[in-house]
Design brief:
Length: 444
């Protein structure tokens, strides 16, 4: 029998890797990571955690201003101080994650890993072998191929930006484009968002994504629709973004046109591992074309949203599979997702578009969130919720736009995932008065 250096070797040390690795190490497996940049990967260092710390100032500002003088002060955001706080909190993550793993006996190799064969990874001139390998290399920002692309910034640059610009152009109205626009508008920046079509956030029902765009417009953000970005030029005042509908000047230009799986220079072609621009192809056990090589997280080609909780679920699934604890195909639960704008847009389970396409299977109940008195407590002004039921009256999906949509959807997730009956729902005695009580109250 061949003796490998490790039982399991991960390429990448983000959530797709470090959420499953402890299960293996605790069960006595020899585990290692190869990481080419920062332990923790995108989410803690340049994604969710970084963003939500910065966004907290926006939520504080909203409540203070909406209080109409009950709480006094201007609510102005000092972006430089906000960024300093973000940097202070974020700085703890890489060492904390690495330390936690090392306590379990997990080893780290630093550098870019490349598959040499089905059991061997090279990192520079170092060679490491493993019985099983998990590719969890994530994604990087897509860069528009236009003249002046060198002047564009991505979300990684933006999440470390110390000085707020006066004027910002954001190309792309997906999660990152809208979250950035919402934050910078609140920080006093003049923001223009350029959309190549007439709709933002295609993952969400258009009535809801349009409602979000309209609210952001009322807050002062300019949206330019059906506009193809052609070039970026340096001008005396900063940069000129030339598009099919006009030229927009800014002193900071962000390319938020999507993210691309990290599949290059991994040696995938030589091993016959299939991939395309959507990611690495896997079977229902998350195995690549080479059975002992798995893939997890954002690098995987899949229908599920590429989010941290999805990466965590997959990482833990592969770990359990490698421990012989789960031999079934991966069975994804309902995955909740939120756009962290002000207001939030959040959904989980069966979508409104699916419900509209299958009226024989689903019924939709519409709610104005302002019908719930509790929403006035923290100065909610408007919001809407759609609840999607199957014909047996089980909640199967929900979408909400409101300042607390993420908390409502989180509270509804158990009902969606476990198909609670009306009798089971009535046994949920949630704390009153809270947003969780409101969420369950909507179902009764
Ligand atoms: C700005 C932003 C905000 C986001 N906000 C949210 C949010 O609010 N909620 C949410 O759920 N999700 C959010 N996401 C998505 C979330 O960050 C990802 O879904 C998650 O990080 C995926 O984890 P992963 O382990 O698959 O990939 P990553 O976290 O990207 O980790 C991959 C790791 O692999 C390393 N790597 C790459 N190639 C190699 C190689 N050859 N050798 C060794 N190492 C390699 C990389 O350096 C990286 O550390 C956000 C993403 C961005 C960019
Ligand atoms: N809150 C969250 O959970 C969160 C936040 C940020 C990112 N993410 C994850 O990261 C992924 C990537 O986010 P993202 O915002 O980079 O990608 P995205 O796919 O959500 O949005 C990219 C947008 O850019 C547009 N676009 C593409 N090419 C364009 C062009 N030439 N001109 C103008 N617009 C163009 C697309 O139509 C799309 O709307 C998300 O899909 C999500 O999985 C999640």
């Amino acid at each position: 029998m061949t003796a490998y250096d490790y039982d399991v070797l991960y390429l990448g040390a983000g959530h797709g890797a470090f959420d499953g690795a402890p299960l293996l190490a605790q069960a006595g497996k020899k585990v290692a990571f190869v990481e080419k940049e920062k332990v923790g990967g995108t989410c803690p260092n340049w994604g969710c955690n970084a963003k939500v710390i910065l966004e907290n100032a926006v939520s504080l500002q909203r409540e203070l201003r909406a209080s109409n003088g009950i709480v006094s002060g201007s609510g102005d955001i000092d972006w430089t101080k906000n960024m300093a706080r973000k940097k202070e909190i974020i700085a703890i993550f890489p060492n904390a994650i690495q330390g936690g793993m090392e306590e379990l006996g997990i080893k780290f190799y630093f550098g870019a890993g490349r598959l040499a064969d089905a059991h061997t990874v090279t990192i520079g001139d170092q060679t490491v072998t493993a019985e099983n390998i998990v590719i969890a290399t994530g994604m990087h920002s897509h860069r528009l191929d236009i003249p002046g692309a060198e002047y564009l910034h991505d979300s990684k640059d933006f999440l470390s930006l110390d000085q707020a610009p006066d004027k910002m152009v954001i190309i792309g109205a997906g999660y990152i484009g809208l979250e950035t626009a919402s934050m910078m508008n609140a920080a006093g920046v003049a923001v223009t968002v350029i959309l190549r079509s007439d709709r933002a956030l295609p993952e969400f029902n258009q009535r809801y994504s349009n409602a979000l765009v309209q609210t952001l417009e009322k807050q002062g953000i300019t949206f330019v629709k059906n506009s193809q970005t052609e070039s970026v030029e340096q001008v005396t005042s900063g940069f000129a973004v030339k598009t099919s509908t006009g030229t927009y000047e800014a002193d900071y230009v962000m390319d938020a046109t999507g993210r691309t799986p990290n599949t290059a220079d991994l040696g995938l072609e030589d091993l016959g591992i299939e991939f395309d621009k959507a990611g690495i192809a896997v079977n229902e056990y998350l195995q690549t074309a080479v059975p002992n090589i798995y893939a997890t997280g954002d690098v995987v080609k899949k229908d599920q949203p590429k989010l941290t909780p999805t990466a965590t679920f997959e990482s833990q699934y592969v770990a359990k599979r490698l421990l012989g604890q789960d031999d079934k195909a991966i069975d994804y639960p309902a995955i909740g997702t939120t756009v962290f704008t002000t207001p939030r847009l959040a959904q989980a389970g069966v979508t409104l578009d699916e419900a509209a396409a299958h009226p024989d299977q689903y019924d939709v109940v519409e709610k104005d969130v302002m019908d719930d008195w509790y929403r006035m407590v923290d100065y909610e002004k408007e919001g809407h919720l759609s609840l999607i039921y199957d014909k047996e009256k089980h909640l199967v999906g929900a979408i909400e736009i409101s300042e607390h949509a993420e908390d409502i959807i989180n509270a509804l997730l158990p009902a969606i995932e476990f198909a609670y009956t009306p009798a089971q729902l009535s046994r949920l005695v949630t704390i009153f008065p809270t947003i969780g009580y409101s969420a369950i109250g909507d179902l009764l």
